[in-house]
Amino acid sequence: MPAIRRCQPLLGTRVEIGLAGACSEDALHGLASLAFARIRALEGALGFHHPDSELVRVNRGAAARAQPISQDMRAVMTEALWMSRLSDGAFDVCVAGPMVQAGLLPDTCGHVEPGGDWRDIHLDTAGIRFARPLLIDLGGIAKGYAVDCAFQGIPAEIDVCINAGGDLRMRPWRGVTIGVRVPDGEHVRSFEMRDAGLATSIGRRGAHASAILDPASGTASSDPRSYSVWAATAMRADALTKVACLAPLEVDWMRLAGGQASSLDTFGCTMELTEASAVPSVIRA
Amino acid sequence: MKRAPDPRSGMNRRELVTGTAALLCGLFAWPTARAETYLSVEQAQRLIFPGRTLTRVPVVLDAAQRRRIATVSHERVRQAELRAWKSDAGEWFIVDNVIGKHENIDLAVGLDSQGRVTGIEILTYRESYGFEVRNPRWRAQFRGRDHSRLLKLDDPIRNISGATLSCRHITDGVNRLTHTWNEVLRSL
Predict the structure, then answer these.
(1) CB contact under 8 A, B159 and A170
(2) Quick check: A127 and A67 in contact, CB under 8 A?
């Protein structure tokens, strides 16, 4: 069966697309090229770094009046707000404010007073509106969404794996072995895929990883472990890794969201976070 | 109380000596831990410029050109000889190499007749962590740990999750090539 693998720099990382199917290699390359084009378009719309992006327009104008938004932005924001509600704010796209203050994101939208959070974001038929000036960044979720969009463009009879810097989705996934990097090491630990989507985040910022900030306090995580989450979609997995990094004991949240999580320490030892025999549900104080 | 010697410092000294000796012998090698080839040059040409006839153009940058390109792009020009092809429509297809701390990447870049990027494809990706990977004392720290499912990077796992090195080197390399077009290729 013909199979191809392609790789392009996109989304600030390397995006790999693997396809296999009973058709010509040219046809597979055509599908891959379309998938890359879809991702490129999303990068332009949802990126914090692009001065002409939809996201920058929303950041600059949504406090003054409702901003009309694309279907893609609506899909991402709907998921983001659901995740914020589920995780009691551990996931919050308003973490952009503290990230700009910490110099982790460019200052493209002007200064915003701290103190706002996801509850100040209102999504309705008119678009998106902020109850107060806010800065939102979709870096914790948009990569997964881009993977899902590219994935959905591949016909069902074609086997596919789309991997955007470690956020991936594949079909088929049952019985497939993948590798997860040991954080700050050069080894890889093998795992069996537990669902179609997988994402991994490291708590602590390093040469290989961007920072995870606690949205409430603005402080950076110093957890050296990495957290891998499997879920039905790459976007769900991507968002849940942030929750896993900041609140690894909140097993109920993970299960409610349909996620399965494991952590890896710098020695390559793994801990299962969501298996039935793992840490029992934490009673919140 | 005397502290036990840190095995890591001894390992670093040995690495430095070995690495320096190898460098001096001209035998500096990349002990590649992982390598993947995505496309050949010809495949990349067909994907970036479908249907075009591309002709190889010998271009060797002189010292002044290399200096100018390095100044405007803020990146050193490591190779004077370009692997460049030109189409009848004035487009350019360039194969280049970028090296990061742990990565060695061959890539193909397409530029239109105005020097704008029309496509980027990674041809080959190589990942390596130098001599550390082969150092027995470094690997000994894993003794007693459950590493039955712990693999070296050169085991055949194709799909990997986890933190990935950013593609900053690629972006800088592509930027250098657009400046190369501006300084040299646009007048060829």
Answers:
(1) yes
(2) yes
Chain B residue at shortest CA distance from A178 = B159
| A23: closest CA of chain B, how far (Å) | 17
What confidence score (pLDDT) does residue A186 get?
72
Please write the tens of the pLDDT for every residue from A59-103: 999 999 999 999 999 999 999 999 999 999 999 999 888 888 777
Each residue of A119-172: pLDDT tens digit?
999 999 999 999 999 999 998 899 999 999 999 999 999 999 999 999 999 999
pLDDT of residue A207: 53
Section A183-205 average pLDDT? 86
Residues of B with CB under 8 A from a CB of A: 33, 36, 38-39, 43, 47, 101-102, 107, 120-122, 125, 129, 132-133, 141-142, 145-147, 149-153, 155, 157-167, 170-171, 174
d(CA B112, CA B92): 6
Look at residues A211, A5, A213, A13 and name the one whose alpha carbon lies nearest to residue A94: A213
* Cα separation, A241 vs B90, whole angstroms: 47
ipTM score assigned to the predicted complex? 0.89
Residues near B96 by Cβ (< 8 Å), separated by ≥ 6? Answer: B83, B106, B107, B108, B109, B173, B176, B177
DSSP state of B158: -
Residue A250 has what pLDDT? 85
3-state secondary structure B68-134: HHHHHHCCCCCCCEEEEEEECCCCEEEEEEEECCCEEEEEEEEECCCCCEEEEEEEEEEECCHHHHH
Q: How far apart are the C-alpha atoms of B59 and B63, rounded to whole Å?
A: 13
pTM of the model: 0.85
Kindly provide the b/e burial profile for residues A157-170, where b requires at least 16 CB atoms within 10 angstroms of the residue's own CB: ebebbbbbbbbbbb
Q: Is B158 exposed, middle or buried, given 0-12, 13-18 or 19+ CB atoms closer than 10 A?
A: middle
